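Suppose a classmate hands you a notebook page containing two proteins, each written out with its sequence and a corresponding row of structure tokens. How would you begin to make sense of it? This section walks through that situation. The first entry is reproduced here exactly as it would appear on such a page.
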Amino acid sequence: MASTVSDEHNKEEYSFIYGDEAVSYEVLRKPIKQGKKRSITIKVQPNCDVTVSTPEDAELEDIHQAVMKRAKWIYDALKEFRGHLEYVQPKHYVSGEMQFYLGRRYVLKVVEDADALPAVKMTRGKLLVTLTRFNDDKTAMVKALVRNWYKVRAQRIFHERLSELLPQATWVDGIPSFRVLPMTKQWGSCSAKGNLMFNPHLIKAPKECIDYVILHELCHIAEHNHSEKFWRWLTSVMPNWKEVKARLDGMAELYLNE
């Protein structure tokens, strides 16, 4: 086992060898408040980033030893998360594919029923899509039905969460309007006039992640850029936003995949 270091742009990055693989990790040094326990914390994010939080004066040897003690755990966690990412493939909208809703996985099931109208509903861990008949447009029809189902659900859930969270955003006057519109690289946005826009794919994420995006955009009504003041606003209404953001970012490829 070995360790290497790269201090490019003041970013502390190290690596260790486990088996036949070099595993990289980033060290985040933080000041320790009086009375707080000095400890080294290791996290493996869903996007396969490994971060090590340490006291700002921690010795490199102590950091490396702490990492090596948990080397197998880190490797196993990376293996699990990589397994999740392997499933990110273009969808064909056929029975057996995986869909997400509010952080839970559902198996897509497509059925034909000549006596029924085209519809989508959740039932017993499945997302059931019913078509009147199968034809050459089957894939396109299933995709359109599923996409519309997500949009309708997103409108309702986002409205509910916005109403629930607004009392925390004391700087917001009235109820801001919002639209649900697909975006390729953003979960949400806020216009200069305070109008909000949310990505319908966000409905696939857990409610805590939805709340993070809504609160993030509400904070932009008070502060339009990502200034230090903005992050203070966000921390005041969601102290654990960094962990929630990492969770959402780690699953982004799966949620945005269609």
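The notebook's second entry, a different protein, reads as follows.
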Amino acid sequence: MISMVNFKESLNNLPLIFTVIPLRDSKTGDPEHDNRIVKNIEARIMDISKTLSDFPGLTAINVPELVEENHEGKPRYNSIFTRKLARGIADQLGKEAIINKVVAHMESYDEFANWILETESQGIRNIVLVGGNTRHHRYTGPNVSEANLITKHLMKTKNLNDITIGNICLPERGGEARRMLYKTISGADFFTTQMLFEGDHITHLLKEYGELCSKAQVNPATVILSFAPLKSVADLNLLDFLGVDLPDETKDYILENEQVSKAYKRSIKNALDVLKAIMNDKIDNYPEINIGINVEQLTKSNMPYSIEMLKEFHIMTQKK
């Protein structure tokens, strides 16, 4: 078996992760349908693993959970076998798997605890715990800080292997630095940001987060910056659904000027420029915060462009 890269140790050294969109389907109880799902997962594992095999500097494979909410905040799950997909690709590449879990909809402590135990038993020891979509609903499950604490408690009481806990960071949300501090105190080892298309919000946030951690005498968590290429105006609809803000100036540069067919190239250049600005700002304003990079596969058709972006960031990380 290929030895795994230790993701937790990599958090101090510019980790590079790749986020794969999960399979959109659901179990039906019909054996023929469900077996077809498993075969589709196995085919996707081999296809993506082959595509990513050219990037030895890749640290981990991340798979999100896709959940929509109705007007009452009730969930509709749009992804399936996320752990199988992440574990399968990671095993093929000799990397570690990262799994996202929306904790807000958990019905009980036992449900959440069982999910943690099952995930750890499958050899997945890196998890990103995610809250609900809005503060206006009363969710059945724990908030993110509570979920962090429960995970830490289970690690201790159930003698689990060390689990690396991640949370989500929304740079444009008011009071985010304070939230990050509390989540760090409750157990977060790293944060993954919402997709970034400009650097002003995140640089201000990182500076404030670093200052709060210093005052609280807390070691800041690693912040993994997320980027994704855009290939057409149609991608804007998905960004809007995900709540990602694309500044007008950046949108015009990437999607509305010059040749549309070259939009993905301008998107990649914009991402590289944003990262460079953040890393330059880090030197003077938040040197104590470790940074990482996450390249996201926004849609299935965006995969070639995501690989192009990954290639550029991979070159950068290998030169560090």
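A careful reader of the second entry would note: The CA atoms of residues 82 and 264 lie 27 Å apart.
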